[in-house]
Amino acid sequence: MQLLLLLAVFVIATCGLIYELVAGTLASYLLGDSVTQFSTIIGVYLFSMGVGAFLSRYFNKNLLRWFIQIELLVGMIGGFSAPLLFILFPIASSFRLVLYALVFFTGTLVGLEIPLLMRILQDKVEFKELVSRVFTFDYIGALLAALIFPLLLVPQLGLIRTSLFFGILNIGVGLFLAIQFGKEVRRAGVIKGMAILLLLIELVAFVFSERIMNYSETLTYNDHVIFATSSPYQRIVLTKNKREMRLFLNGNLQFSSADEYRYHEALIHPGLQAVQQPQKVLVLGGGDGLAVREILKYPSITSITLVDLDKKMTQLFSTNHLLTQLNKGSLNNAKVKVLSEDAFLFLKSNTNKFDFIVIDFPDPSNFSIGKLYSNSFYRLLYQALADGGVAVIQSTSPYVAPKSFWCIDETIRSVGFHTAPYHNLVPSFGEWGYILAFKNNSYKIPANYLPGLRFLNPATAQQMFVFPQDMRTTQPLAVNKLNNQVLVNYFEEEWNAYLE
Amino acid sequence: MHRRQFIQSLSTLAGGSLLLPACGGPSTKKIPGEIVGASASIGHLLRDGGLQGPVELAGTTDVVIAGGGISGLSAGRWLQKNGISDFVLLDLEKHAGGNAASGHNNICAYPWGAHYIPVPNNDLTEYLAFLQESNVITGYNEQGLPVYNEYYICFAPEERLYINGTWQNGLVPHAGLPVEEQQQFKRFFEQMEIFRQAKGSDGKDAFAIPVLHSSTDIQYRQLDRISMRAWLQQNGYTSGYLHWYCNYCTRDDFGTRYEEASAWAGIHYFAGRKGKAANAEHQDVLTWPQGNAWLAQQLQKNFTSQVKVNSLVVNVAETNTGVDVIYFDVNAKRLKKIAARKCIIAAPQFIAQRLIKNNNRLAAIHEHFSYSPWMVANLTVGPLQERRGEELCWDNVIYDSESLGYVEATHQLLEQHIPQKVLTYYLPLTKSDATTERKKALALQHADWVQMIIKDLQKVHGNIRDAVQHLDVMVWGHAMIQPKLNCIHNPERQQVAQPVNNRIFFAHTDLAGISIFEEGFYQGIQAAKSVIQSFQ
């Protein structure tokens, strides 16, 4: 019995430290600032172990039974700590409170165990022997945990499975003791039943841990997730902090409410202001309705066709209160027709001519999106643009990816367009680029803009069309075609180098 | 490392690292699908003489074309173009097209056989005209080079090869190869380039398309007398990777192992293509989701009313005034006869000569013609796990596999969102001789093929078994002529295809020796021209 109980000490010590490390690591990754997180977690944990030790004096009868029960409780709470924290992170308004409460509770229970165990063994072993052995096992267990956690567990199992795995171990020890000492424990059957039930629950959770992980993807974001949904095409996540609201598609920032006006004013007005009496407008992409908001400022416009593949996006941006506030309900405007179609297929079958066309696609980061930046696509664009019309294409960052930016320019010109590239600073994105395309070379940077714009005025507009040397490239660039997709290669090369 | 990346990699590890009884063991999931198409059982009625009964006269016509593969369709197109529209084309299958067969499901159309054409050689005037007619060529640039429709040029990324634990770009092995072997590849391709440019003393290209236009210079003809493998050895090529590559190429184009394929044919694979284009290179290919079935459709678009499908020709016999063609109407289940003035038999010779009941020719065919069996499968798949290296391409080949890998039929679609894909998997059955392999293949059940394919693809897509939603299989007993030794410039082979009394003509790629689209196209034109001439 003595050896078994000492082995239990060993397992308990290992598990205890593991829970602490899991909590510390998790807090570091979720909240950042690992020094603060580890420091406070360790502090709270050790303190709560003290609380547990103090409370142990109030346990007087059925010590072994209590010990096993506590073991099961630790297994449950500690085991589920990581999944619980991952899931609660985006939901709970005061995540830290939950975090420290969990750490405190686990610490208290672990703190109870050693004193209880020593009292169970006090009549069986000489005191100096007992103290020596219990603490020896305790500290060896701690060393083991400290070594395997970073070397084996995190890389092999991940945090959620590590936490569940040790929960299972804890409960396993409890069950084992309940079976071994069934005669010395009152109503051992109930405890055994409990232990088996808990064991099953944790095993199930262990098997499905990947789903838990997916569910808790919101930990990617620094701010509070106020809305998250999956469409067949992408994951849409909206976050909010005191200053701004941000939209992420598949984890990539689409806009920040704090500076999106800089992007959308620059995207729309230099082109649209140059069109005489624009009436029909086409927007490809831009399901957030923010570009449409800017376009609707021109009274001559009679119809806006917005083509966005993802119905969920356009629905969200025409119904969600916060979002319709941001886009001024643009998608619900009677002039706006929203089509949920593939942009390439739409243009291929389109027979209409538009006075102004906005192309606001994601950056060409893969072969699929790369098709929407090909000469074949721009040829269709040429057909869709009225003779005196202007098209504008968002064209990634000419500062980070000059080759990509100028490759897009080269490709647009290869199908017969004249172009006018320009750029501005959007703090959330960095220095951003756009290209105007038109059929005859008569474009002049507009000298007047609508009143009430926050970024654009005649002076800033002039400046946008000036490219310093660091946003140019001397390398000869190929035209992006469906059968070479050179743009995707440029883009990958340049952004990877930038992000490394 | 960035925090987000860290968590993402954790989740991947958490998901993928542990084998759990509940989700890790071999799945016993049954994969739905069936063995489809290529009506072998009906075709064998012909071989076994099982079609008897009264014959109903179904009409008279100027010309019957027996067989609706590329040769037959091309012959029909040529007749129509040249003012002969009183003809009937008979084909056994539900759709004409022969090897250029295709299927479709709710995702896209996909090929069951031939699935691309290389950028054509510029001297093939009739062929280029057909492609322009079909809007594959949209015009010519100032240098007179054809401009190809960019929706039909294979999109990037085109090809990848899984080798030495990684997906490398392109099919020519380079990832993880020793320098010495890389140099052998370099030398090999330099030599092929010389062959590509070479002309014989007769002024003809050493390796031309159609092959019968090639130079008959002895220095090139003698390449037809040794195997591709022997040629490699004679020329000091020892690299195992290079040998694999050449064997892959002869199996890919000819369904024939490189120790059996004539070196002339093997080299033709590299040296025959000389196409120049305004917007493509000679190694580029033109392709469609449904493969060459798209071209088959274009060939027959002006004479669809003359195409009679579900019609198995069983006998072609001369009469006093012309040719009687008897066929089995599969739907009506009865024999019918068309009295024609001329007949073009656009079928492989083992069938053609049986139709005219010429036993001497049949014997020659058994001696000189052999056809390779193939299995083609189409897999509908959800998201696939990928090995490291290049992303999914149009053509995806696994080094050292029995199969030729797979082609992504969905590759040529323009859409952004293609959650399910259709993969067309090709397996030339070249393990042993064609007859044995054919018998074995026809005896296999759907489940056997599934197991074989899954096992092969599991090397590169760990989750393939779970990702496959549907898998159909087609077995081609006689998929294509095998260019074995002495096959290209063999007078005996030319002999068997001599027209019979200016009434019965023959057109098929097996008369050329290699089964490529251009050969079928010109075989058809040649036969049609002979028919037109015979009318004059």
From TrEMBL, chain A:
<dbReference type="InterPro" id="IPR030373">
    <property type="entry name" value="PABS_CS"/>
</dbReference>
<comment type="function">
    <text>Catalyzes the irreversible transfer of a propylamine group from the amino donor S-adenosylmethioninamine (decarboxy-AdoMet) to putrescine (1,4-diaminobutane) to yield spermidine.</text>
</comment>
<feature type="domain" description="PABS">
    <location>
        <begin position="205"/>
        <end position="439"/>
    </location>
</feature>
<keyword id="KW-0808">Transferase</keyword>
<keyword id="KW-0620">Polyamine biosynthesis</keyword>
<keyword id="KW-0472">Membrane</keyword>
<feature type="binding site">
    <location>
        <begin position="342"/>
        <end position="343"/>
    </location>
    <ligand>
        <name>S-methyl-5'-thioadenosine</name>
    </ligand>
</feature>
<keyword id="KW-1003">Cell membrane</keyword>
<feature type="active site" description="Proton acceptor">
    <location>
        <position position="360"/>
    </location>
</feature>
<feature type="binding site">
    <location>
        <position position="308"/>
    </location>
    <ligand>
        <name>S-methyl-5'-thioadenosine</name>
    </ligand>
</feature>
<comment type="similarity">
    <text>Belongs to the spermidine/spermine synthase family.</text>
</comment>
<feature type="transmembrane region" description="Helical">
    <location>
        <begin position="190"/>
        <end position="208"/>
    </location>
</feature>
<feature type="transmembrane region" description="Helical">
    <location>
        <begin position="72"/>
        <end position="91"/>
    </location>
</feature>
<comment type="pathway">
    <text>Amine and polyamine biosynthesis; spermidine biosynthesis; spermidine from putrescine: step 1/1.</text>
</comment>
<feature type="transmembrane region" description="Helical">
    <location>
        <begin position="97"/>
        <end position="118"/>
    </location>
</feature>
<dbReference type="GO" id="GO:0004766">
    <property type="term" value="F:spermidine synthase activity"/>
</dbReference>
<dbReference type="InterPro" id="IPR029063">
    <property type="entry name" value="SAM-dependent_MTases_sf"/>
</dbReference>
<keyword id="KW-1133">Transmembrane helix</keyword>
<feature type="transmembrane region" description="Helical">
    <location>
        <begin position="130"/>
        <end position="153"/>
    </location>
</feature>
<dbReference type="InterPro" id="IPR030374">
    <property type="entry name" value="PABS"/>
</dbReference>
<comment type="subunit">
    <text>Homodimer or homotetramer.</text>
</comment>
<feature type="binding site">
    <location>
        <position position="264"/>
    </location>
    <ligand>
        <name>spermidine</name>
    </ligand>
</feature>
Automatic annotation (TrEMBL), chain B:
<dbReference type="InterPro" id="IPR050281">
    <property type="entry name" value="Flavin_monoamine_oxidase"/>
</dbReference>
<protein>
    <submittedName>
        <fullName>NAD(P)-binding protein</fullName>
    </submittedName>
</protein>
<dbReference type="InterPro" id="IPR036188">
    <property type="entry name" value="FAD/NAD-bd_sf"/>
</dbReference>
<dbReference type="Pfam" id="PF13450">
    <property type="entry name" value="NAD_binding_8"/>
</dbReference>
